[in-house]
Amino acid sequence: MVKQPAMASGTREIFVLRLWRNTPQSPWIVEIQNVKTNEVAHLSGLEAIARYIEDQVRSGSLEPDTTPLDSAPTRDES
């Protein structure tokens, strides 16, 4: 297990991603939620996920993270 340091303050965004489809043949339905702002977007198709996040980053609409670096958790990677 490799322990990675937490990212510097201001560089992290957290999204909750929910995927479902009504039948095995149906296209995926996507709901993505920004954890900080609680903004929820409903998207059609898996390609839309990357496009949505890229648009959020490029538009500058993401809120800066003001959590002090020393209080941010570290991630454990296997």
Please explain how this structure is put together.
The chain is of the alpha+beta class and 78 residues long. The chain has a domain at 13-64. 17% of the residues lie in helices and 29% in strands. It has 1 helix and 5 strands. The strands form 2 sheets. The chain has a 3-stranded antiparallel beta sheet, covered by helices on one side. Strands 1-5 form a two-stranded antiparallel sheet. The longest helix is centred in the C-terminal third of the chain and has 13 residues, at 47-59. The radius of gyration is 15 Å and the shape is elongated. The model has no long low-confidence stretch (mean pLDDT 76).
In short:
With 78 residues, this protein is an alpha+beta fold. The protein has one helix at 47-59; strands spanning 2-4, 15-20, 29-34, 40-44, 75-77. The strands form two sheets. A three-stranded antiparallel β-sheet has the order 2-3-4, covered by helices on one side.
